[in-house]
């Protein structure tokens, strides 16, 4: 069952990540324009992505497990492999400049959703492995909730307990455990959690007050995001719990009232993960433009220019992302034609 509002949320959060969050972090805090601390407050968006994934699954019709896995492959795995193949010449060039060819171990890591090269074109793909890992268990989780009426707060308590023993398992497992909570939260999309939400938000807010107020932990959400810890979970829980309904109503209202907003949200929603993958090239173009003109320090020294930069940068990326995606799709259409000429029965 298709949910109109979920499509709106999906498009809106992709715009937020690709045009604002990564703008103020990648081409803001990381280049000295903004202070790292307060900018990190914007880095709650991936929790929403996982929430939407859970909510979407809760509305799908029941299907055999292998059919479900096939849809995950089509929506996530194939787009990633296309993007990885597209970027592979740049990866080979990187290894050649560092004195060798790509080792088999790194190649396998590259194919299996963990690009080994630390570079902007891959920085945003960290979520793929935990996302796919969670996806493997999503049908069982949902069936358990539906059959045994498991309360959401049970999962929240389990996550807190599991994070208490995070030294005994890998960073990938810890990341999957944390984002599993937000995915499960999405599985209750059509249910009124009522007091469970209130308890979770109050507990999370209390923990944040203790950490920031008593323990005097510096406010830096990014420092608690990789791997995500209890502070990060609490922060996202408070943001989504207190502001989630307002964000939902606000984005739907904008969508209904503005044709321009509706147009861009529809584009970012319908294009799937491709536009998220390729938006890294848009920020690279913006970063190179600023670097050549020496704008980073100039913007950093003037508050008015910082505000102007956020607005102009947002609007620039909002449009450039679309054109980069069109170019990306055009290149793939040329490759597909070439493959069909050589292998008439084949299609990428």
Automatic annotation (TrEMBL):
Keywords of the record: Acyltransferase, Membrane, Transferase, Transmembrane, Transmembrane helix
Entry-linked Pfam families: Acyl_transf_3
Residues that span the membrane, as ranges: 7-26, 38-59, 80-101, 121-141, 148-166, 195-214, 226-247, 303-324
GO molecular function: acyltransferase activity
InterPro entries: Acyl_transf_3_dom
Keyword Isomerase carried by entry: no
Acyltransferase domain sequence ranges: 33-316
Protein name per the record: Acyltransferase family protein
Organism phylogeny: Bacteria, Pseudomonadati, Bacteroidota, Bacteroidia, Bacteroidales
């Amino acid at each position: 069952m298709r949910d109109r509002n979920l499509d709106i949320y999906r498009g809106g959060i992709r715009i937020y990540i690709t045009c604002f969050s990564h703008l103020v972090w990648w081409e803001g805090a990381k280049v000295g324009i903004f202070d790292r601390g307060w900018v990190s407050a914007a880095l709650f968006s991936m929790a929403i992505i996982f929430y939407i994934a859970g909510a979407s699954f809760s509305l799908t019709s029941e299907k055999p497990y292998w059919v479900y896995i096939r849809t995950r492959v089509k929506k996530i795995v194939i787009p990633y492999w296309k993007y990885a193949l597209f970027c592979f010449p740049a990866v080979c060039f990187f290894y050649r400049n560092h004195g060798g060819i790509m080792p088999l171990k790194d190649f396998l890591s590259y194919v299996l959703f963990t690009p080994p090269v630390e570079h902007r074109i891959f920085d945003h793909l960290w979520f793929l492995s935990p996302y796919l890992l969670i996806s493997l268990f999503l049908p069982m989780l949902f069936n358990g909730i539906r059959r045994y009426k498991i309360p959401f707060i049970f999962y929240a308590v389990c996550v807190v307990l599991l994070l208490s023993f995070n030294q005994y398992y890998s960073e990938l497992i810890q990341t999957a455990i944390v984002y599993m909570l937000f995915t499960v939260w999405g599985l209750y999309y059509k249910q009124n959690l009522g007091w469970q939400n209130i308890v979770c938000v109050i507990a999370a807010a209390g923990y944040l007050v203790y950490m920031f107020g008593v323990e005097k932990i510096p406010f830096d959400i990014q420092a608690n995001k990789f791997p995500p810890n209890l502070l990060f979970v609490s922060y996202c829980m408070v943001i989504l719990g207190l502001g989630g309904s307002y964000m939902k109503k606000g984005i739907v209202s904008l969508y209904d009232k503005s044709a321009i907003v509706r147009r861009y949200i529809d584009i970012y929603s319908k294009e799937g993960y491709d536009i998220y993958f390729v938006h890294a090239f848009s920020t690279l173009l913006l970063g190179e433009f600023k670097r050549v003109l020496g704008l980073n320090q100039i913007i950093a020294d003037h508050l008015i220019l910082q505000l102007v930069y956020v607005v102009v940068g947002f609007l620039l990326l909002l449009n450039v992302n679309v054109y980069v995606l069109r170019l990306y799709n055009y290149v793939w259409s040329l490759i597909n034609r070439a493959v069909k000429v050589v292998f008439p029965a084949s299609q990428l």
